[in-house]
Amino acid sequence: MSESAGTKSAPERRAAGGPVLQDAVTNALTTAFFEELAETGYGRLSMEAVARRAGAGKAALYRRWASKQAMTAALVSQAATEGHLPDTGSLRGDVREFLEGWIIALGHPQAIRIILDLMAESARNDELRDALRSTVRDPRREQAARLLRRAVERGELPGDSDIDLNLDFLGSPVYWRMAVVQGAVDQGYLDRLTAKVVAALGA
Predict the structure, then answer these.
(1) Cβ(64)–Cβ(3) under 8 Å?
(2) How far does CA 49 lie from the centroid of its chain?
(3) Is the pTM for the entire model greater than 0.85?
(4) N or C: which end of the chain has fewer CB within 10 A?
(5) What is the CA radius of gyration of the chain?
(6) Range of the domain at 176
């Protein structure tokens, strides 16, 4: 079965027991989803608008995601957890790369708008909140926890380190700076922040 997305064909893949899913269509739908979400917000987001923006049929969209919530959880999780976990051999190096990656992610034109919108929507929508916690928050925190556990194994952090509390110190300052304060973030700031976070972690 063919799918239209206004792009040239790409290698195809087949869902288990289902039709062939073209990567070009999936990519077009993914791009359209984030553009639509950033412009309209989750509350006004519709599956039909995403398909229309992608130049694809609604059937192509529903073959991939059963609902708006399922599409949001899957695609936001994919975007939030992609990329490698820093492994420089030192806590300071890992923290610096982690913070720099977070700065780059939040610096994307769509990122802050989408994050703030989904946080606000999650306060009103328990199902969306639970879906994003399990697919986005928990996997991201587990990735960062591995970074901290490696530092414990190397002897850079105490064996009784409060990993859960340290995760708050690791991720929160960049969000506060970029989303709330909306202050400048340059290499000098990154260096100072790295030193402060490492000190707060107890190294």
Answers:
(1) no
(2) 22
(3) no
(4) N
(5) 20
(6) 77-201
Evaluate whether residue 2 is within a structural domain.
Answer: no
What is the mean predicted confidence (pLDDT) over 53-59? 93
Shared-domain flag, residues 56 and 138:
no
Q: Are 25 and 3 in contact (CB under 8 A)?
A: yes
Closest CA to 115 of 172, 76, 149, 67: 76
Question: What 3 state SS string does 27-61 have?
Answer: HHHHHHHHHHHHHHCCCCCCHHHHHHHHCCCHHHH
In degrees and rounded to multiples of 5, residue 132 shows phi and psi of -70, -30
Please check whether residue 95 is in contact with residue 157, taking contact to mean a CB–CB distance below 8 angstroms: no
φ and ψ of 12, to 5 deg = -105, 155
- The reply to whether 83 and 172 lie within a common domain is yes
Amino acid identity, position 69: Q
pLDDT digits (tens, 9 = 90+) for 138-176: 999 999 999 999 999 999 999 999 999 999 999 899 999
The answer to whether 75 and 30 are in contact (CB under 8 A) is: yes
5 found inside a domain = no
Question: Is residue 130 located within the same domain as residue 160?
Answer: yes
Is 81 found in the same domain as 58? no
